[in-house]
Amino acid sequence: MTAMTDQFTAGAGRTILSIDAMGGDRGPATVVAGISRSAKKNPDIGFILHGPRAELQKLVARRRPLQGRVEIRDATDVVTMDDKPSHVMRHGKGTSMWSAIDSVRSGEADVCVSCGNTGALMALSMVRLRKLPGVNRPAIAILWPSRNPQGFNVMLDVGADIRADEQDLLQYALMGASYARNGLALARPRIGLLNVGTEEHKGRAELKAAHDLIGANAEAAGFDFVGFVEGGDIPGDACDVIVTDGFTGNIALKTGEGTASLIGDLLKEAFKFSPLSRLASVLAYTSMQRLKKKIDPRRVNGGVFLGLNGTVVKSHGSADATGVAAAVKLAFQLAQSGFSEKLAARVASAAAQVQITAMDRTESGDTE
Amino acid sequence: MTAMTDQFTAGAGRTILSIDAMGGDRGPATVVAGISRSAKKNPDIGFILHGPRAELQKLVARRRPLQGRVEIRDATDVVTMDDKPSHVMRHGKGTSMWSAIDSVRSGEADVCVSCGNTGALMALSMVRLRKLPGVNRPAIAILWPSRNPQGFNVMLDVGADIRADEQDLLQYALMGASYARNGLALARPRIGLLNVGTEEHKGRAELKAAHDLIGANAEAAGFDFVGFVEGGDIPGDACDVIVTDGFTGNIALKTGEGTASLIGDLLKEAFKFSPLSRLASVLAYTSMQRLKKKIDPRRVNGGVFLGLNGTVVKSHGSADATGVAAAVKLAFQLAQSGFSEKLAARVASAAAQVQITAMDRTESGDTE
């Protein structure tokens, strides 16, 4: 134990986050810069930082806000973006990612944050944290800029699993509602099921089944079910949580990001076009910065893995210090609200509810 | 035959388009305003206009550019947005939509344009025009603003059918390539297959099979196959044509539209925010109009039904005169290039090619 650890232990009462320093595109210096920003803004966070000790000690020592706030856990191996999840599951024990997840497993930290390889992070999280009782497929949930008063909608799954049957979609609805309650402070979130039309007869068979199942569980689970929604409702105000399978969710997420990025670039070009428009860009600077902040993907950085015994926040691999700080902020909010425990309780009670409903129906001969 | 028809017949050499005047959200006056705009700009278009004769005659008489350019076909029934496709197929004979499609069936017009109910339009087109030999599922293709030099990418299917197996996806690749050649003047289009990652082992089984099938047919069909692409590549420059099933394509299309519309509204708000930003909006007006024109969905209005004996352009139901004119322009370009015949030839030759390849493989015992 180092002197740093002693100082750290002294900082009792802090919410401790477990941070994977490695595996991001910009290396550990960016991660340390990001958590330093968070530490400066928020005196209630402490960090367990995972990676090669000597390198991390140097980086941390340079950041005054991190003094006495960081415990370093030596982990010499790194999961790269090209590593196959199956390989990491077998041989990843010495990696910073494994070590970072294990701090949540042991209960030392409430939430883990990593910029690393998504597939490997999900695979390791499944193996080390295990699925919550009653959850078949964990999901990745993200926040999406929207027309709703809270400014964001929740969408899940955006890529944990390319398949989802009606039972999975029901669990996504429960988990998404829980995330909206704790991440967006919505007492009674409105849930929508993503489809190609809002009429009840449209779409694939599992979507029709999920429509009925989610509707039947809405009251007991404390959310409103608005039925089918379309792609245009993801940034809209028809609902707060969009439920879909990980294939469709991933395509929608990347299409939205790509469209926003194209428009942003065209806008920059437009402002550069003529002397008048260049002058305009100076005058509009403050307003444009405000707009940019509103839809900047770095400000809503962090996919959250739901359905495990513990919460893992996946930051963008290319996140800069601002992006890392945003992911840390999200992790802190979730840890503070006791999100992991609340989610587990919701899923468990809903699983029991579904079982009871199923038993009732069998007994009464009501098969609908 | 009216005097109008005589004048019309005299305008020989014109490219004749069949226009469904009814079924759009804004009624026939908007459709007539739209085709009038097209007629003014382009002396080489003539129209067969379908709907209630008395009403249409009055609307047409008011538009000078349409004098001698329109033949009206009386059709008193209208397909509404709420009509079920199955109902329209059985009882739709007296509708303007049926009549408009039949002008393509009879060969009087090369391309049909309608703002009506998409499901009904596809169902009637299937029944009246029939599928091309070798096509299992027709598709709807759209143009999407992109970073490519041509300014747009083609995406299909965006909602003709929620299912697509590997053979369907191969046909979409062939039809999309043909559309890119004739609609965007790309001699050798680059085709991408939409997936959740670019690695070959990712995604659903039918996507892996389609990957191999499209790759094996690229050379003979005269396109380049770039392999899997992601949602972010839809507005990108990695390929010119994005191939996907109608469920995923529809979600992606509406997500992209919704995201663009949200950003547009936030941008307007930002410009209104302060006196300085309001001044900026005046100075940037011309540049912003240019940008708006570039990504205005009305300017790329028109989903094209591919895989039928004849081409049908589906305009947005809410299209205004600008939107209708854009759909007419697209229909004209496709008619002029002899698109329907070229597409049919491509699909037929590819179907033969696939059959030969399959036979070769069976004979040589190569099952890969």
Automatic annotation (TrEMBL), chains A, B:
Its EC number is 2.3.1.274. Homodimer. Probably interacts with PlsY. GO terms for molecular function: phosphate:acyl-[acyl carrier protein] acyltransferase activity. It holds the Pfam family FA_synthesis. It catalyses: a fatty acyl-[ACP] + phosphate = an acyl phosphate + holo-[ACP]. Keywords: Acyltransferase, Cytoplasm, Lipid biosynthesis, Lipid metabolism, Phospholipid biosynthesis, Phospholipid metabolism, Transferase. Pathway: Lipid metabolism; phospholipid metabolism. It is found in: Cytoplasm. It comes from the Bacteria. Catalyzes the reversible formation of acyl-phosphate (acyl-PO(4)) from acyl-[acyl-carrier-protein] (acyl-ACP). This enzyme utilizes acyl-ACP as fatty acyl donor, but not acyl-CoA. Belongs to the PlsX family. The keyword Lipid metabolism applies. One of its GO terms (cellular component) is cytoplasm. Its main location: cytoplasm. This is Phosphate acyltransferase. NCBIfam families: plsX. The lineage of its organism: Bacteria, Pseudomonadati, Pseudomonadota, Alphaproteobacteria, Rhodobacterales. GO terms for biological process: fatty acid biosynthetic process; phospholipid biosynthetic process. It is an enzyme of class 2 (transferase).
